[in-house]
Amino acid sequence: MSARFPKYLFITISLFLGSQVELAGQSNKREILGIWLNQEGTAKIKLSTHPVHKDRIQGKIVWLKHPKRNGKVKVDINNPNEKLRNRKMLGLTIMKTYRYNPKESRWEGEIYDPVSGLTYDSYLVKKEKKLKLRGYIGFEWIGRTAIWTPSSLN
Questions:
Q1: Strands 143-150 and 56-64
Q2: Whole-model pTM over 0.85
């Protein structure tokens, strides 16, 4: 019996610690969900729970300072995939399946930049009511950081 006790104790502790990590991620998730104004002030992005993977988040463009180009609704003209170049910018999902990394205390995923047509690895960290977004290719030190501020649709 004593040989089994440590095994059950280990399983119980592991389950408890795992649930604490999940709770920390969910708490952090609530802090970043909502509407954010990008650093340039040209777009607002709504961060929401992913519709399929509830432990992940996604981001969609919900407002554009200049929603039209030459009198026409802006579309994803810089997309490397020609079949996707007619997608409207407004409503475009630019951030997909961000997952919380408890070891780094941040959300990690990919972000699509419709201005360049490129997709970057990235991470999000909330600091002092602002969102730090770091996009990079391959190595974190080769990239760009942007600061987003909380906003609303008004």
A1: unpaired
A2: no
